[in-house]
Amino acid sequence: MGRAAVAGALAVAAAFAVLPGPAARADAPPDRSLQRFTEQNPRWEKCGHKELDEAGARCATIEVPLDYRDPDGRTLTLGFSRIKAKDTAHRIGLLMHNSGGPGGISLDMPLMDEPAMGEKLAARFDLIGMDPRGVGRSSPLRCRTSGHWLRSAGYDGAGFRAHARTQRELVRSCQRVYGREVPYLRHFTTRNTARDMDVLRAVLGERKTSYFGISYGTYLGAAYARMFPSRVDRLLLDSAIDPRRWHVQAFRDPDVANEEMLGAWSAWTARRHAEYGLGRTAAKVRATVEGIARQAAREPFRVGPYTADGQKVPLALATLLSDDREFANAAKNVRLLYDAARGRDVEPTEDLRYAFGPPDEESDIQNSLQLALICGDGAAPRDLSWYRRNVEESRGRAPLFGPVFNATSPCAFWPNEPVERPVRAGNDVPGLIVQATGDPRTTYANGVGLHHAMPRSRLLTLDARVHGVYGLYGNACVDHHVNAYLATGRLPSTNPSCEKD
User: Fold this and answer.
1) Which residue among 14, 126, 241, 258 is least crowded, i.e. fewest CB within 10 A of its CB?
2) CA 88 → CA 92, 121, 123, 201, 232, distances in Å?
C-alpha cells in the first residue's frame, strides 16, 4: 500500500439498511450486453512512463460501464499496462496487480516483479498493471480534498468534534465538486473494480488470470475470486484483509499493532540516545513522542512552511512506523518534530512534507477514490456517539493510535447509500496468503481470518514488523515459497513460516 493510502483497509457492521443490488452469482453465464466491452481491441502505445517504457511495457485504454446494471449507459476509461511474456514457450498467462489503498495507482506495479521473481520466472507472465476505476489513467476522481481522511480524534470532546467536522467537510468537498452528479460516485466500488478486471481479462483473450494484490488489493483479489472463481489461476494475497471485517472494523484493527510498533521502535531508539536524543529508555522515548502529539493538540506548531496539528501528528507517526527496517528514518523525522515542537526552525523531509503539506493532484485523486470506494462498498454507522465510545474505549489499549483508527468515518456523512452489499464471505479458490506477524496496517489476525475464509488457501507467515512483504521486504524464504507457487501453481503442503533475514 502506498503512503497516500496509509490506512490499508476498514470495516464494521452496517448501521443502516443497504439498498438491494443485483444478486452476485459467481461465474454467471456470459452477459451478452457486455459483448461490446469484452470485444474491444486495445490500441497499444508507449506508456510515457520512463521505467515502464524501458522495461518494454505498452499501455492502452478500454471502456467499461459506469454501472454494470446499465451497460448501455455512461462509461468509464480504464487504463492499464502490459509487459508481454518473453518466454513464450513456457508462458503461464496473465498476472494482474493491485497495489492497495484503496486508491493506489497500479499501472507501474509490474516493475516490482522481475526483482522478486527473477528474470526467468517473470518472463513467463504477461504482467498487467491496471489502474482501478477512479485513479491514475482510469477516469480519476477529484474531490479537492484538504488531505487524507484518516486522522486523530485527539484527547477530549473538543478534539473529537473537530475531527468529525473535518470528515464532514471532506465529504462536502466531494458534494461541491460533483454537485448533482454525486450519485456517480456510488459506482466506484470493489465489486465494480472486480468486474472491470474481468472485462480486461476477456479483452486480452484469456480464459483465466493470475493475480497479485497487496493490502486492500487482497480484498479486491478475494472478491474477484468469489465473483469469478473459475477465472482465477494463481492467487497471491500479501498483507491481507479478512473480508468479514471490511470495511470499518478493518480500519479499527491496527490500533494495538501500531502501539506495539511504537514500543519496538522506542526500545531501538533508546539504545541510540547519543545519536537522536529522544530518551535513554523506551519509556522515555515513548513519553517524548506522546509529548509531541499532545503539544500539537494543544497548540499546533510549524514544520517549515506547514502546520503540525493534533489531528495530523499521530497519523504522521503511524506512517513513519510501518517497517522495522526504517527505524532510523523514523527516528530522524521524530527528532525534527521534537525540535519543531520546541519552537526551532526545521527543514521538513519528504516524509514530513507528505504528512503536513497540502495534497498534490495524485494524492487528491487517491484520497477521493478512497472516500468514494469505502463509502460505496458498505454502510457505516451514522451515530457519532458510536465512534466517540470506540475512541474512549481504545485509549487504554492504544493511547496514541486508538483515537486515529477508531475515530469517525467519513461514511457517517456520505450522501449515497451503497448500491449493493460488500463481499463479506471467502471463497473456495486455492491461493497463497503472505502475512507478517507484526503488520501494523492489516494485522496478522486478518491474514489468519482470510485463510479460514479460504479453506483451500495456504498462509505463509513472516516473523517481522512490516506491511507489504513479497517484492518489498526482500526475504529469501518468502521469495522462495512465493516463486515456487507462481512457477508451478502448486501450493505448499503446509502453512510455512519464515524468519527475518
Assistant:
1) 14
2) 9, 12, 8, 18, 20
DSSP 30: P
Q: What's the CA gap between 501 and 292, in Å, rounded? A: 34
* Sole residue written with cell 486478518: 446
Cα 237 from Cα 482, distance rounded (Å) = 10
CA–CA dist 33, 233 (Å, integer): 26
The CA distance from 289 to 479, in Å, is: 35
Nearby residues of 472 by Cβ (< 8 Å), 6 or more positions away: 112, 214, 466
Helix (H, G, I), strand (E, B) or coil at 303: strand
The closest of 491, 501, 495, 493 to 236, measured between CA atoms, is 491
User: What DSSP state is assigned to residue 19?
Assistant: P
- pTM of the complete model: 0.94
Strand 58-65 with 75-83, pairing: antiparallel
3-state secondary structure 421-470: CCCCCCCCCCCEEEEECCCCCCCHHHHHHHHHHCCCCEEEEEECCECCCC
